[in-house]
Amino acid sequence: MPSYPNLPSFKIDYIKLAPKDGFTVSIITSMHTHLGTHIDYPSHVEPNAKCSDDYSLEDLMGEGIVINLTHKREGEEITDEDLMKFNRYIKRGKMLFIFTGWSKKRATASNYLFNWPYIGEDAAKFLVEKDIKVLGIDGLSVGGWSGRKAGQRSINKTPSRRIHEILLGAEILLVEEVANLDKILLNREIAEAFFIIAPLPIKGAEAAPCRVFSITQS
User: Fold this and answer.
1) 82 and 98 Cβ atoms separated by less than 8 Å
2) What is the domain extent for residue 124?
3) 153 band by pLDDT with thresholds 50, 70 and 90
């Protein structure tokens, strides 16, 4: 499973096999909390901030929208101007999910792992002013890749940590690597839905893999 470039990959081993042991048992030997679709809690960037223990399932459900930003190019910043086009739909206490088309590129490939469209600092501050509840995106992170990759200098953009600090500091929960947002949009620019975010209930966690469910009107 492709994952954030500087984090360890998923690994599973089998400790019992049905042909010789009568049943199969496997053990996950490597899995970080930001693998696949996952939710970031405020304690991801601030040790004493809220963690998984502080949120109920009711806190992780509610009305929201999906917006279509598939016009953004590889590695391009999502600006406050991009979001202003949907200003009247981005409301206090609601969830916002951004579809860039990046989930369709999922693979262990350079463009997917390093060059997704990302939230810029002005856009992050705009969302704090709008006081949304959750921000979701289909790239590997809400912030862009700002580290180094083989054969290149550090990419010059606002550090991903800074974007996380702005959003999580305002207690906007983040859901990254969200799949199938296009099935809600159905080729439209915007779509509304009721969302349920169901993370693994790991005690004291700063993040957790999750499933995101949507309920739409037919």
Assistant:
1) no
2) 32-215
3) very low
